[in-house]
């Protein structure tokens, strides 16, 4: 049994396949989640049997989060595979995440807050080499943090 991890919070889109918690396949795509997510995941569903779908529920790209949640939630329901999630800070060493303008999301202990930062060190999102399912939660609703900006 394998686990599928999706990070669609910006570019690139990252998808990892894990076996017994170890990363066995990594896919990076510069395309938009709405354009490439199904194209990437469909062949994976044919090659692997998944025990869990996991995604970074935010904060990050509003559309990336929304598309990923709807896509994986639909698969979760139709294939009867649990959907788990965690916040995006798990995948970038708790580094600030760009919101809008000079606003960044930061995680202080367990709270995610908006702060004005000037040139913060921002670490890109990465798939970890090893995952522990205990770090993920069935509370999988997206976390947008702020309203959509028009």
Which CATH class of the domain at 2-92 and 124-135 is shown?
Alpha Beta
The secondary-structure element order is EEEHEHEEEE
Strand order of the largest sheet: 3-2-1-4-5
Main beta sheet strand tally, sense and closure: 5 strands, mixed
Specify Rg, calculated over alpha carbons.
15 Å
CATH topology of the domain at 2-92 and 124-135: Nucleotidyltransferase, domain 5
Number of helices: 2
Proportion in β-strands: 25-35%
Shape: globular
Structural class, from secondary structure content? alpha/beta
CATH architectural group of the domain at 2-92 and 124-135: 2-Layer Sandwich
Low-confidence stretches: none
Secondary structure: helix percent = 10-25%
Mean pLDDT: 93
Tell me how many strands there are: 8
CATH H-level superfamily of the domain at 2-92 and 124-135: ATPase, nucleotide binding domain
Roughly how many Å apart are the termini?
A: 42 Å
């Amino acid at each position: 049994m394998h686990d599928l991890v999706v990070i669609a919070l910006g570019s690139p889109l990252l998808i990892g396949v894990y076996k017994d918690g170890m990363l066995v396949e990594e896919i990076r795509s510069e395309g938009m989640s709405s354009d490439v997510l199904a194209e990437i995941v469909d062949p994976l569903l044919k090659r692997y049997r998944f025990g869990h779908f996991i995604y970074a529920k935010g904060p990050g790209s509003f559309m990336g989060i929304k598309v990923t949640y709807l896509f994986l939630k639909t698969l979760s329901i139709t294939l009867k595979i649990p959907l788990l999630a965690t916040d995006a800070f798990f995948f970038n060493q708790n580094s600030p995440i760009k919101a809008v303008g000079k606003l960044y999301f930061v995680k202080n202990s367990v709270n995610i807050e908006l702060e004005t930062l000037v040139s913060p060190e921002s670490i890109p999102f990465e798939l970890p080499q090893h995952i522990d399912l205990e770090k993920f939660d069935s509370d999988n609703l997206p976390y947008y943090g702020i309203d959509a900006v028009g």
